[in-house]
Amino acid sequence: MRVLFWGTPDFATAPLRALIGEGHEVVGVVTQPDRPRSGRGRSTLDASPVKVVALEEAIPVLQPDRPRGEEFVASMRALWPDVSVVVAYGHILPKEVIDLPRLGTLNIHASLLPLYRGAAPIQAAIRDGRTETGVSIMRMVPELDAGPVILTLRVDILPDETGGELQLRLAELGAEAIVTALALVELGGAIEQPQDETKATYARKIARDHAMVDWTGSAEIAERVVRAYDPKPGAWTMRGTTEVRLFGAMAVDTPAVAVPVGTVIAAGDDGLLVACGDGALRVQEVHVAGRKRQRAGDWARGRGVAVGDVLGPPAVEA
Questions:
Q1: What is the mean pLDDT of the chain?
Q2: pLDDT grade for 39, boundaries at 50, 70 and 90
Q3: Does 178 share its domain with 258?
Q4: Which of 17, 129, 183, 281 is the residue whose CA sits 20 to 30 A from 255?
Q5: 137 with 112: CB under 8 angstroms?
Q6: Same domain, 156 and 278
Q7: With 50 as the cut, is the pLDDT of residue 318 above it?
């Protein structure tokens, strides 16, 4: 089958490699334009992970600013795709582009649709305390993640799993699912199940405030926030006027302590213990703005933080 593949981040590389490995003819890859490298050397442009794979496999690459317009559609049509496969490409596709391939366009979405339509389903599932998630292969329509579902594969979310770890597992699961779904479509055996709109929920693009740790809530909720946004963008709090990102969190039951929420109540080799509205959160690693990620105990020994300090926005008072 002639496949036009759409994707940008690391999450999309496993499905792309799986399609190539299964013998599908990937006639082209559509990915976002090269971006300036963060940090030093911003004059250097970095290719997307998907583009890197495409170049390794000598696959033609299309990088429109936006996937629309006569010129772009003509370049698509010249590839004669049987089907498009979309995985975290980064733009909503217009109907003309969705319908151009002979068999339409399929999308790999990292949730059990109709739950968590949108940009950040993996993080949302962990943040919300879900015990199960998965991938859905759906037929793409112009409405966001609303098309009929062809195949769903499920997986348990592990109790201490981070967003990054779950993403790796779901990328491999998505690779397995799209290979199976394309076989069903090619053989005419695909059953397309409409989504139940009454059960639809949405996982918005991650905003800065989503990853802020709220010490007034329970330690369990704070732990889920830290795990959800590990490694990127990293859950964060403030130490005075300095931003601190938190990693390796574990909720701990502690006796009631008469200190403000956000107070560091212990600091040592086993990390920081921070008071929450209910219980306390143990944090193993921190990334202080302007420094390298380090063990929380090393941060304390270096006098970056001490027992009795209060973490949180300036509004949190001792």
A1: 95
A2: low
A3: no
A4: 129
A5: no
A6: no
A7: no
Number of domains comprising the chain? 2
Tokens of 28: 């082209």
Q: How would you label 118-135 residue by residue, b for 16+ Cβ within 10 Å and e otherwise?
A: bbbbbbbbbbeebeebbb
- What distance lies between CA 13 and its chain's CA centroid? 14
Q: What is the pLDDT of residues 228-243, one digit of tens each?
A: 999 999 999 999 999 9
Structural contact between residues 213 and 222, judged by C-beta atoms closer than 8 angstroms: yes
| pLDDT of 317 strictly over 80 | no
pLDDT value, residue 42: 59
Statement to judge: residues 194 and 70 lie in one domain: yes
Work out the average pLDDT over 61-86: 97
Contact 6, 86 (CB under 8 A): yes
Is the model's pLDDT at 220 over the cut of 50?
yes
Cis status, amide bond into 231, omega within 30 of 0: yes
Distance in angstroms between the alpha carbons of the first and the last residue of the chain: 64
- For the entire predicted model, the pTM comes to 0.94
Same domain, 225 and 198: no
Domain housing 56: 2-203
Last residue within a domain, chosen from 172, 203, 234: 203
Domain termination residue (choose one: 135, 168, 203): 203
pLDDT digits (tens, 9 = 90+) for 277-293: 999 999 999 999 999 99
Q: For residue 57, which of 13, 90, 87, 91 has the smallest C-alpha distance?
A: 13
